[in-house]
């Protein structure tokens, strides 16, 4: 079985790439993390994670269309690959297994 290693921040970024489904780019992910997760994050840290995920084969990217709003520059759009999907599923399975081992009542609820 292939092992997929995702750091916590990489997992979050990869989840947002998946959620934004073919419309994910650095700024959109940064804003989503700030707004939806109430977490302070910089654009450069998101870009670093995206490039690391691309090196691992978990995402792929291409250039979107140019816009006058961006001074004619094009956005780098990211999408999740099948390997990225498998990495997310493996991470979720691991987390579910660990939560399933949690002693009943530890957090005030039964598993």
Question: Any key phrases for this structure?
Answer:
single chain; 111 residues; alpha+beta; Arc Repressor Mutant, subunit A; 52% helix; elongated
Integer average pLDDT: 90
Number of strands: 2
Global geometry = elongated
Between the first and last Cα atoms, what is the distance in angstroms?
28 Å
Task: Write a structural description.
By secondary structure, this protein is an alpha+beta fold. The chain has a single domain, classed as Winged helix-like DNA-binding domain superfamily/Winged helix DNA-binding domain (Arc Repressor Mutant, subunit A, Orthogonal Bundle), CATH 1.10.10.10. It has four helices and two strands; from the N terminus they run αααββα. A two-stranded antiparallel ribbon has the order 1-2. β1 and β2 form a beta hairpin. α2 packs across α3. The radius of gyration is 17 Å and the shape is elongated. 17% of the residues are buried.
Describe the SSE topology.
Elements (H helix, E strand, L loop, with lengths): L7 H13 L5 H12 L5 H14 L2 E8 L7 E7 L1 H19 L11
Antiparallel strand pairs: 1-2
